[in-house]
Amino acid sequence: MTDQEFMDRAETLLKAVEVCCDRINDDSDADIDNQRTGGMVTLTFPNRSQIIINLQKPLHEVWMAAKSGGYHYRWADGLWQDTKGQGEFFSALTANASQQAGIALAFRA
Q1: At what angle do helices 3-27 and 89-101 cross, to 10 degrees?
Q2: Which end of the chain is more exposed for a tag (fewer CB within 10 A), N or C?
């Protein structure tokens, strides 16, 4: 993957996270604050816990930090896959955000 391909795919991912937060806030009482700074999106939940998603450009990876731990994702087979075989990005984001929000949430590409 070229640097430009990574940036295009990573930008699509970050934008999808932002759009999902807006949809979730419109459709539920989740009240997730999402802040974007360059290649990083910070999700802050009402209990003040956070999920931080940021780009690691030199590695062509997207990293996610949540209460449950840190995760690294690379583009493979049309999805952002965990580098340790722990699944797909949006599934992990859904699980972590639901746990931190205390209600069922759904993130998708």
Answers
A1: 30
A2: N
Residue 49's nearest CA partner among 68, 22, 62 is 68
Residue closest to 92 by CA, chosen among 69, 60, 59:
69
Q: Which amino acid, one-letter code, is at 97?
A: A
What are the tens digits of pLDDT across the range 34-68? Answer: 999 999 999 999 999 999 999 999 999 999 999 99
Per the CB < 8 A criterion, the answer to whether 100 and 21 are in contact is: no
Rounded to whole angstroms, the Cα distance separating 3 from 7 reads: 6
Q: What beta strand segments (E) does the chain contain? A: 33-37, 40-44, 50-56, 61-66, 69-76, 79-82
